[in-house]
Amino acid sequence: MHLFEAVLKSKQAVCEDTYEFTFGLIGLKLKFLPGQYVWLILPELKYSDPKGARRAYSIASSNQDASEITLIFRESDSGFNKSLHDLDVGSEVKMTGPFGSAFVQSEIFTKDIIIVAGGVGVTPFLSWLRSGVEEGANVTLIFLNDSPNREVCAGEIQKLCQENKVTAITHYQRFDPSLVESIDNYQKATYLVSGPEAMVYDVYEKLKSKKIPLEQFRFEEFYPRRFDIGDILNLDEGFRLAVESASNHIIITDENATIVYANQAAVTTTGYSLEEMKGSTPRLWGGLMSPDFYRDFWHQIKIEKQPFVGEIHNVRKSGEQYFALARISPILDEAKDVIGFVGTEEDISERIKHEHTLKQQRDKTTIEKEKADAMLNSVGEGVVVINRKGIVTLANRAALNMLKFPVGELVGHNYSKTVHAQRFDGTKVEPQYRAVNCSMKQEKKIVEDMIYTRFDGSTFSVRTTNTPVRLHRKVIGGVVVFRDITAERMLEEKKDEFIATASHDLKSPLVAINGLLSMALDNQYGELSEKLRDVLEQIDASGNQLLVLVNDFLDATSIQSGKMHYQYSTFDVVAVVEEAIQLYETVAKKKGVELKFEKHEKVVVCADVSKVAQIINNLISNALKYTNKGDVKVYINLLDDGGKAGIYVEDTGIGISESEAAKLFDKFRRVNYSKVTGTGLGLYISKKMANEMGGDVVLAKSAPEVGSIFEFTLLTEDDQAQ
Questions:
Q1: Which stretches make up the PAC domain (predicted)?
Q2: CB 511: neighbour CB atoms within 10 A?
C-alpha cells in the first residue's frame, strides 16, 4: 500500500453524466492488479460532505504502464462528487492503494467466466480488458445500462472485447436470465457481478432461481441482501449498551458487509465517524491484505459460515497503518442462512511492531554475522579472538593456514599455551608475558615481532598487533592480528648488514679526512689564504654531514639488530642541555634565530649520558633546521611527582601536519620540506634510544606555520632506583 501524490492530467465525459478522470502519478509507478481500487483524497472540499474528502474507486486503467491512474464516476449530489467534478486539470490530489481482492484475476476462476456489469460497475472489467485478458478463458461480458446514452465507454469496450476474444452482450433493461441460458456451460461458470446494490441483488436472485449456487459468484463490492440486519439492532437495548461500552472495536454489517452499526471504539480505532462508516464496508479502513487472503476469508465466513479469527493489516483515516486481531462471525437466521456479520478488532500494533523489531534484529544479527565471517575469512592477515581467560573463541582461515592448526586444536584452547612464541634471540616468551595478555592487562594496543611455532613444529617470524576488546568500559577479551614477516626479516637483515658494512667502511676514511681538514684549518700545515680556507671549510662541513649520515646508519642498524650498547650512570641533565645550547649557538646566530634555555635547578637522571646528549642535540638541530624566524626554546620540567624529567624543545618553525605526525618516528621519514636535507633517521634513533633508557620522545604539540614542541622524558635517579 502506498500513499502517493497525483495530478489531474485530463477529464472527459464517457457517457451521459459519467466522467473519466486520468491522474498522473508523481514520482511513482504503481503496481496493481485489475479489479483493485484506490482511495482518492481531495485536498479540500468545494462543497461540504458529511462523509469527508475521500472515496474509493475501482481502477479503470491498464496496469501495463502504471504511471497513470484512470477513475470513472457518475455525477451525484454528494459534496465530494460535486467537488471532484469541479476539479481543474493540473490540480494535485493524494491517493492510497492499491487495495482489494482483484476479483477479476483469472487464477481464481473456472474456465468459463460470465461477467454481469451495471453502469460504472464495468470499471474493474475495463481495467482487465485494457491490461489484456489471459488466454484460455472463455469470457462473456453482459453490460447492463438504462439506455445507450448511459453506456460507459461503449465503443472502446466493444473494440477491446473483440481484441481479447470476449463475447460482449449489451442490454438496456433489467437483467434477464435468458441472457445467460444461451451461453455454453452457464450453470458451471464463474459469475462476476459488479454494479449498483439493487442490480447486484436482482441478478443474484434471478440466477439463483436457475440453480446457480452462491459459491460460483464473485462480487466486487455489493453482495445480494436477503434480510434487513438493522431490525436486529432494535431488539435489545441492554445489548446495545454493552457493545457501546466495550473497549474493543465492534461493527455489525449486513450480509453484503455494509456497515449498519459501529461502537465508539471502532470510531477511535479507525478515525472514521459513525456517519462515514454507515453505508460503507470495512474496506474503508481495510484492503491491505492479499487477494488470496480476501478470497479465502469470504469463503470461510459466507460460504462455510464459520467464524474467522486472525491478524489483519488495516489503515486508519489518517493514513497510519495498524495491525489488529480480528474476530468476524456470521449472523445466521433460523434457516442457518447468513444475514449479517459481527466483527471485533483488538489493536495489536505495538505487539506486532515489537515482534517485527525482534525479527529484524535477529535477521540483521544473522546477516551481519555472515558478513563478518565472510570479511574475516577474506582478510589476508591471521586474526584470532580470545576471551578474558585467554581461550580462543574465533580464528579466521588465514590464521589457521599460517599456523597449520586444525580448527578444533585452536578454538577452545588457551592461545598463549597452544601457540608457542619466542624472541629473535631464541628465548621463550612465557604466557603471562605474551603481548595479547599484556595488552588486556594494560588496556592498550601492543605491536610486537616474534617467532611463532606451527602445529607441525616449524617456525616463522610474525608481526603481531594485539588489541584489548572492551564492552561497557570493561576488557572482555583481546584480538591478535598477525602476518608472516619471515621474508621481510631476511631482506631487512641483508639490508642492515649491507648498510652496516658500507657505513663502517666509509666511516674510517671520513674520520681521517675530517681530521686532516681540521689540522689544515688550524694552520698546522701553514697559513691558508682566505679563498683556500673557504673551500676547505665547505669540504669540512660536507664531510661532517656525511659522517653524521654514516653514524645514523650505524646507529639504526645497531638498534635493529639489538647490538646497541648503553653505559648507565647518574648525571645532571641540565649540564648536558647547557652543553648542547653552547654547541648550536653559532648555528642559531647564522640563521637569525634566538636559541634560549630556561635555566632549571639540578636534575639528576640515570641513563647513558652520550645517548642523552645525542637525542638532545638531534632535537635542537631539527628545531633550528625547520625554523627560519622567531626562536627555539629549551626547558625542563619534573613530571610524575619528580619521577621523570621532561626536556622540551619548542620552536616557531614550519610545524607538522596530522598526516605527517602519524609516521614521524618511522625510519627514513622526514617532514616534506625541500630546503632541509637529512636521512630521516634522527627521530627514529632518538625514540628507540629513549625507550631503551625507560623514557620516550614524542611530538607534544604542533601546528603548520605555528611551530612544534618535542618532549624527551627520562627517569630521574630516585625513580630509577625504585
A1: 308-360
A2: 13
Show the cell assigned to 275.
456517519
For position 147, what pLDDT does the model report? 92
Task: Tell me how far apart the alpha carbons of residues 402 and 399 are, in angstroms, rounded to a whole number.
Answer: 5
- Residue 153 CA to residue 72 CA, distance in Å, equals 10
Give CA–CA dist 37/45, Å, rounded: 21
Burial of 318 (0-12, 13-18, 19+ CB in 10 A): exposed
Q: Which amino acid is at 242?
A: A
pTM higher than 0.90, yes or no? no
pLDDT digits (tens, 9 = 90+) for 195-213: 888 898 899 999 999 999 8
With contact defined as beta carbons under 8 Å apart, do 593 and 587 qualify?
Answer: no
Alpha-carbon Rg for the chain in angstroms? 46
Q: Which residues contact 593 (CB under 8 A, 6 or more apart)?
A: 624, 627, 628, 629, 630, 631, 632
Give the integer Cα–Cα distance in Å for 338 and 357.
40
CA neighbor of 113 nearest in space, from 92, 136, 143, 95:
136
What span, in angstroms and rounded, lies between the C-alpha atoms of 436 and 415?
A: 9
CA distance 22 to 126: 14
Average pLDDT, the chain: 85
Answer whether 694's CB lies under 8 Å from 640's CB: no
Q: List for the chain the helix, strand, coil content (%; round to 5).
A: 40, 30, 30
Residue with cell 460535486: 82
d(CA 42, CA 94): 7
pLDDT at 278 over 70: yes
pLDDT at residue 561 in the model: 65
Instruction: Name the one residue in this structure whose C-alpha cell is 621523570.
Output: 644
Report the C-alpha gap between 606 and 612 in whole angstroms. 10
Helix residue spans in 379-485 (DSSP H)? 397-403, 407-410, 415-418, 435-442
Nearest 5°: the CA angle 16, 18, 20 is: 135
Mean pLDDT check: name the lowest of 181-185, 286-290, 380-384, 411-415: 286-290
% pLDDT > 70, the chain:
88
Regarding predicted confidence, which is higher, 498 or 593?
593
Concatenated DSSP letters of 517-539: HHHHHTTTTS---HHHHHHHHHH
The count of other CB atoms within 10 Å of the CB of residue 658 is 9
Is the pLDDT confidence value at 582 over 50? yes
Which amino acid, residue 594?
Answer: E
Q: Which three cell numbers stand for residue 403?
A: 599456523
Distance CA 553, CA 682 (A): 10
Q: Which three cell numbers stand for residue 94?
A: 493524494
